[in-house]
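Troubleshooting log. The previous structure file for this entry was overwritten by mistake, so regenerating from the original sequence record. Sequence copied from the archived sheet and checked twice against the printout by T.R.
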Amino acid sequence: MTRGLYILLLVFCSTRLFGQEKIAGVLLRTPEAQNGYTLFSTVNSKITYLMDNCGRVVHTWESDYKPIHTLYLLPDGKLLRTAKLDNTVITGGGGGGRVELFDWDSNLLWFYEYNTDVVRMHHDVTALPNGNILILSWYLKTQDEALAAGRDPAKLTDGVIWSEQIIEIKPTAPGNGDIVWEWNAWDHLVQDFDNSKPNYDDVSLRPDRINLNYTPDGGQNDWIHANSLSYNPDLDQIIISTPFFESYGLSITVQLRHKQPRDREAFGVKVVISFIVGEILQHIIREPSPTKNFSVNIGCIGLMMAFLMRENYVFQ
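Regenerated output below.
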Protein backbone atom coordinates (compact mmCIF):
# COMPACT_ATOMS: atom_id res chain seq x y z
CA MET A 1 0.00 0.00 0.00
CA THR A 2 2.77 2.39 0.91
CA ARG A 3 4.72 1.42 -2.20
CA GLY A 4 1.68 2.09 -4.36
CA LEU A 5 1.23 5.50 -2.77
CA TYR A 6 4.85 6.42 -3.56
CA ILE A 7 4.37 5.43 -7.18
CA LEU A 8 1.15 7.43 -7.40
CA LEU A 9 2.84 10.51 -5.92
CA LEU A 10 5.77 10.17 -8.32
CA VAL A 11 3.46 9.97 -11.35
CA PHE A 12 1.44 12.94 -10.06
CA CYS A 13 4.54 15.11 -9.50
CA SER A 14 5.98 14.18 -12.88
CA THR A 15 2.72 15.08 -14.60
CA ARG A 16 2.61 18.45 -12.84
CA LEU A 17 6.23 19.19 -13.82
CA PHE A 18 5.76 18.23 -17.45
CA GLY A 19 2.64 20.36 -17.62
CA GLN A 20 4.41 23.52 -16.48
CA GLU A 21 6.67 25.84 -18.43
CA LYS A 22 10.32 25.12 -17.83
CA ILE A 23 11.94 27.81 -15.69
CA ALA A 24 15.50 26.51 -15.19
CA GLY A 25 18.27 24.93 -17.22
CA VAL A 26 18.57 25.35 -20.99
CA LEU A 27 15.31 26.98 -22.08
CA LEU A 28 16.12 27.35 -25.78
CA ARG A 29 18.72 25.89 -28.11
CA THR A 30 18.40 26.43 -31.85
CA PRO A 31 20.65 25.28 -34.75
CA GLU A 32 21.87 28.87 -35.03
CA ALA A 33 23.45 28.78 -31.58
CA GLN A 34 27.24 28.85 -31.76
CA ASN A 35 29.08 25.83 -30.45
CA GLY A 36 30.99 26.75 -27.36
CA TYR A 37 30.70 27.46 -23.68
CA THR A 38 29.19 30.07 -21.40
CA LEU A 39 31.19 31.56 -18.55
CA PHE A 40 29.14 33.14 -15.77
CA SER A 41 28.75 33.82 -12.09
CA THR A 42 25.64 34.86 -10.19
CA VAL A 43 25.61 38.06 -8.15
CA ASN A 44 25.45 36.42 -4.74
CA SER A 45 27.74 33.48 -5.44
CA LYS A 46 31.51 33.23 -5.11
CA ILE A 47 31.62 30.44 -7.71
CA THR A 48 32.29 30.94 -11.42
CA TYR A 49 30.78 28.37 -13.80
CA LEU A 50 31.78 27.19 -17.26
CA MET A 51 28.76 25.59 -18.94
CA ASP A 52 28.24 23.92 -22.30
CA ASN A 53 25.23 24.41 -24.58
CA CYS A 54 23.41 21.49 -22.97
CA GLY A 55 23.53 23.16 -19.57
CA ARG A 56 26.21 20.84 -18.17
CA VAL A 57 28.73 22.43 -15.81
CA VAL A 58 32.14 21.73 -17.31
CA HIS A 59 34.29 23.51 -14.76
CA THR A 60 34.10 25.79 -11.73
CA TRP A 61 36.34 28.22 -9.87
CA GLU A 62 35.75 29.49 -6.35
CA SER A 63 36.77 32.84 -4.86
CA ASP A 64 36.52 34.30 -1.38
CA TYR A 65 34.66 37.28 -2.83
CA LYS A 66 31.42 37.89 -4.66
CA PRO A 67 31.75 39.12 -8.26
CA ILE A 68 30.79 42.36 -9.90
CA HIS A 69 30.15 42.61 -13.61
CA THR A 70 32.93 40.86 -15.53
CA LEU A 71 35.01 37.72 -15.75
CA TYR A 72 37.05 36.34 -18.62
CA LEU A 73 38.51 32.95 -19.54
CA LEU A 74 41.92 33.70 -21.01
CA PRO A 75 43.51 31.73 -23.87
CA ASP A 76 45.89 29.97 -21.46
CA GLY A 77 43.01 28.69 -19.31
CA LYS A 78 43.36 31.24 -16.53
CA LEU A 79 40.33 33.05 -15.14
CA LEU A 80 40.44 36.85 -14.89
CA ARG A 81 37.74 37.98 -12.50
CA THR A 82 36.49 41.17 -10.84
CA ALA A 83 35.42 41.11 -7.18
CA LYS A 84 33.49 43.34 -4.83
CA LEU A 85 35.04 45.06 -1.83
CA ASP A 86 33.22 47.38 0.56
CA ASN A 87 33.59 51.12 0.07
CA THR A 88 31.60 53.67 2.06
CA VAL A 89 32.66 56.71 0.00
CA ILE A 90 32.46 55.64 -3.66
CA THR A 91 29.31 53.57 -3.56
CA GLY A 92 28.03 53.44 -7.15
CA GLY A 93 26.53 50.45 -8.88
CA GLY A 94 29.19 48.29 -10.48
CA GLY A 95 31.76 49.16 -7.86
CA GLY A 96 34.30 46.43 -7.23
CA GLY A 97 37.79 47.30 -6.07
CA ARG A 98 39.56 43.98 -6.63
CA VAL A 99 40.88 41.97 -9.60
CA GLU A 100 41.76 38.27 -9.35
CA LEU A 101 43.62 35.79 -11.55
CA PHE A 102 43.08 32.05 -11.02
CA ASP A 103 44.66 29.06 -12.72
CA TRP A 104 42.53 26.23 -14.13
CA ASP A 105 42.58 24.41 -10.79
CA SER A 106 41.12 27.42 -8.96
CA ASN A 107 44.39 28.43 -7.33
CA LEU A 108 44.64 32.19 -6.81
CA LEU A 109 47.75 33.28 -8.71
CA TRP A 110 47.48 37.04 -8.35
CA PHE A 111 45.16 39.75 -7.10
CA TYR A 112 45.20 43.52 -7.01
CA GLU A 113 43.06 45.90 -4.97
CA TYR A 114 42.31 49.43 -6.17
CA ASN A 115 39.83 50.67 -3.62
CA THR A 116 40.26 53.78 -1.45
CA ASP A 117 38.34 56.93 -0.59
CA VAL A 118 39.65 58.47 -3.83
CA VAL A 119 39.75 55.65 -6.41
CA ARG A 120 37.70 52.51 -6.93
CA MET A 121 37.94 49.91 -9.67
CA HIS A 122 34.50 49.43 -11.22
CA HIS A 123 32.64 47.37 -13.82
CA ASP A 124 35.35 46.04 -16.13
CA VAL A 125 38.93 44.98 -16.71
CA THR A 126 40.71 43.49 -19.69
CA ALA A 127 43.89 41.48 -20.25
CA LEU A 128 46.48 42.84 -22.69
CA PRO A 129 48.69 40.74 -24.97
CA ASN A 130 51.77 41.81 -22.97
CA GLY A 131 50.34 40.20 -19.82
CA ASN A 132 49.31 43.46 -18.17
CA ILE A 133 45.78 44.26 -17.00
CA LEU A 134 43.71 47.33 -17.85
CA ILE A 135 41.44 48.51 -15.04
CA LEU A 136 38.54 50.93 -15.28
CA SER A 137 38.30 53.14 -12.20
CA TRP A 138 36.40 56.00 -10.66
CA TYR A 139 38.56 58.92 -9.52
CA LEU A 140 36.87 61.13 -6.93
CA LYS A 141 37.18 64.89 -7.32
CA THR A 142 36.15 67.09 -4.40
CA GLN A 143 33.75 69.99 -4.64
CA ASP A 144 36.67 72.43 -4.53
CA GLU A 145 38.47 70.56 -7.33
CA ALA A 146 35.33 70.47 -9.45
CA LEU A 147 34.61 74.18 -8.99
CA ALA A 148 38.25 75.05 -9.67
CA ALA A 149 37.99 73.20 -12.98
CA GLY A 150 34.89 75.17 -14.02
CA ARG A 151 32.03 72.93 -12.96
CA ASP A 152 28.67 74.70 -12.62
CA PRO A 153 27.77 74.59 -8.87
CA ALA A 154 24.17 73.83 -9.83
CA LYS A 155 25.47 70.60 -11.35
CA LEU A 156 27.18 69.44 -8.16
CA THR A 157 24.08 67.97 -6.58
CA ASP A 158 26.12 65.33 -4.72
CA GLY A 159 28.96 67.68 -3.77
CA VAL A 160 31.66 65.61 -5.52
CA ILE A 161 32.37 64.15 -8.97
CA TRP A 162 33.62 60.68 -9.82
CA SER A 163 35.73 61.12 -12.92
CA GLU A 164 36.97 58.19 -15.02
CA GLN A 165 40.43 56.70 -15.07
CA ILE A 166 42.07 53.81 -16.92
CA ILE A 167 45.20 52.30 -15.46
CA GLU A 168 47.48 49.57 -16.79
CA ILE A 169 48.82 47.22 -14.14
CA LYS A 170 51.90 45.05 -14.57
CA PRO A 171 51.30 42.13 -12.17
CA THR A 172 54.12 41.38 -9.75
CA ALA A 173 53.65 39.49 -6.48
CA PRO A 174 50.11 38.60 -5.32
CA GLY A 175 48.51 41.75 -3.97
CA ASN A 176 50.97 43.98 -5.81
CA GLY A 177 51.45 45.44 -9.25
CA ASP A 178 53.11 48.38 -10.97
CA ILE A 179 50.99 51.09 -12.58
CA VAL A 180 52.91 51.47 -15.83
CA TRP A 181 50.44 53.73 -17.67
CA GLU A 182 47.30 55.70 -16.94
CA TRP A 183 44.73 57.93 -18.60
CA ASN A 184 42.47 60.37 -16.78
CA ALA A 185 39.37 62.03 -18.20
CA TRP A 186 40.06 65.01 -15.91
CA ASP A 187 43.11 65.90 -18.02
CA HIS A 188 40.93 66.45 -21.10
CA LEU A 189 38.20 68.91 -20.10
CA VAL A 190 36.53 71.97 -21.58
CA GLN A 191 33.93 74.26 -19.99
CA ASP A 192 32.10 77.44 -21.01
CA PHE A 193 30.64 78.31 -17.60
CA ASP A 194 33.39 80.35 -15.91
CA ASN A 195 35.99 82.24 -17.94
CA SER A 196 38.17 82.69 -14.86
CA LYS A 197 38.75 78.95 -14.56
CA PRO A 198 40.97 76.58 -16.55
CA ASN A 199 39.73 74.84 -19.67
CA TYR A 200 37.44 77.76 -20.58
CA ASP A 201 36.54 77.83 -24.27
CA ASP A 202 33.69 77.53 -26.72
CA VAL A 203 32.73 73.89 -26.31
CA SER A 204 31.60 73.62 -29.92
CA LEU A 205 35.10 74.64 -31.06
CA ARG A 206 36.95 72.14 -28.90
CA PRO A 207 36.38 68.65 -30.29
CA ASP A 208 39.53 67.58 -28.43
CA ARG A 209 37.97 68.03 -24.99
CA ILE A 210 35.20 66.59 -22.78
CA ASN A 211 32.54 69.07 -21.69
CA LEU A 212 32.71 69.21 -17.89
CA ASN A 213 29.17 70.57 -17.66
CA TYR A 214 27.46 68.13 -19.97
CA THR A 215 25.21 66.45 -17.42
CA PRO A 216 22.23 64.59 -18.90
CA ASP A 217 22.02 62.74 -15.58
CA GLY A 218 21.20 65.96 -13.73
CA GLY A 219 24.58 66.39 -12.06
CA GLN A 220 25.00 63.28 -9.92
CA ASN A 221 28.43 62.29 -8.65
CA ASP A 222 28.86 59.40 -11.12
CA TRP A 223 29.28 61.90 -13.97
CA ILE A 224 30.39 59.67 -16.86
CA HIS A 225 29.64 56.13 -15.64
CA ALA A 226 31.77 54.20 -18.10
CA ASN A 227 30.77 50.57 -17.72
CA SER A 228 32.76 48.50 -20.20
CA LEU A 229 36.34 48.37 -21.38
CA SER A 230 37.96 46.49 -24.24
CA TYR A 231 41.22 46.44 -26.19
CA ASN A 232 41.71 45.90 -29.92
CA PRO A 233 45.29 44.74 -30.58
CA ASP A 234 44.97 45.17 -34.35
CA LEU A 235 44.22 48.88 -34.01
CA ASP A 236 45.99 49.31 -30.66
CA GLN A 237 42.82 50.91 -29.31
CA ILE A 238 41.00 50.87 -26.03
CA ILE A 239 37.25 51.26 -26.15
CA ILE A 240 35.01 52.26 -23.28
CA SER A 241 31.28 52.92 -23.27
CA THR A 242 28.91 54.95 -21.15
CA PRO A 243 25.11 55.18 -21.24
CA PHE A 244 25.09 58.60 -19.57
CA PHE A 245 26.51 60.46 -22.58
CA GLU A 246 23.81 58.97 -24.78
CA SER A 247 24.36 59.82 -28.47
CA TYR A 248 27.77 61.42 -28.07
CA GLY A 249 30.88 59.59 -29.25
CA LEU A 250 34.29 60.13 -27.72
CA SER A 251 37.39 59.30 -29.73
CA ILE A 252 40.70 59.72 -27.91
CA THR A 253 44.19 59.36 -29.34
CA VAL A 254 47.15 59.30 -26.96
CA GLN A 255 50.75 59.32 -28.12
CA LEU A 256 53.30 58.50 -25.44
CA ARG A 257 56.58 60.36 -25.85
CA HIS A 258 58.19 60.01 -22.45
CA LYS A 259 60.12 57.26 -20.74
CA GLN A 260 58.17 57.68 -17.48
CA PRO A 261 54.59 56.78 -18.43
CA ARG A 262 53.07 57.88 -15.13
CA ASP A 263 54.29 61.48 -15.58
CA ARG A 264 51.12 62.84 -17.16
CA GLU A 265 52.62 66.31 -17.69
CA ALA A 266 55.24 64.74 -19.96
CA PHE A 267 52.73 62.98 -22.17
CA GLY A 268 52.42 64.15 -25.74
CA VAL A 269 48.65 63.90 -25.93
CA LYS A 270 46.27 64.49 -28.78
CA VAL A 271 42.62 64.04 -27.97
CA VAL A 272 39.92 64.08 -30.61
CA ILE A 273 36.22 63.87 -29.74
CA SER A 274 33.84 63.10 -32.57
CA PHE A 275 30.41 61.72 -33.33
CA ILE A 276 30.29 57.99 -33.96
CA VAL A 277 27.61 57.17 -36.48
CA GLY A 278 26.34 54.25 -38.52
CA GLU A 279 29.19 53.37 -40.84
CA ILE A 280 31.91 53.56 -38.20
CA LEU A 281 29.90 51.63 -35.66
CA GLN A 282 29.02 48.94 -38.19
CA HIS A 283 32.68 48.62 -39.12
CA ILE A 284 33.59 48.07 -35.47
CA ILE A 285 30.94 45.41 -35.01
CA ARG A 286 31.74 43.66 -38.29
CA GLU A 287 35.45 43.44 -37.44
CA PRO A 288 35.80 42.78 -33.71
CA SER A 289 39.06 42.19 -31.98
CA PRO A 290 40.34 38.63 -32.55
CA THR A 291 40.82 38.24 -28.80
CA LYS A 292 37.73 39.92 -27.40
CA ASN A 293 34.54 41.38 -28.80
CA PHE A 294 33.81 45.00 -28.00
CA SER A 295 31.14 45.74 -25.43
CA VAL A 296 28.26 47.91 -26.62
CA ASN A 297 25.83 49.72 -24.35
CA ILE A 298 22.59 51.09 -25.79
CA GLY A 299 21.03 54.01 -23.92
CA CYS A 300 17.56 55.48 -24.19
CA ILE A 301 18.60 57.93 -26.91
CA GLY A 302 21.76 56.59 -28.44
CA LEU A 303 25.19 55.14 -28.03
CA MET A 304 28.47 56.44 -26.73
CA MET A 305 31.81 54.76 -27.23
CA ALA A 306 35.30 55.99 -26.49
CA PHE A 307 38.48 54.97 -28.28
CA LEU A 308 41.90 55.37 -26.77
CA MET A 309 44.71 54.76 -29.26
CA ARG A 310 48.21 54.23 -27.98
CA GLU A 311 51.60 53.81 -29.56
CA ASN A 312 53.31 50.49 -29.04
CA TYR A 313 55.80 50.93 -26.24
CA VAL A 314 58.07 48.85 -24.07
CA PHE A 315 58.73 49.48 -20.37
CA GLN A 316 62.20 48.63 -19.17
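The radius of gyration is 23 Å. Archived copy saved in two places this time.
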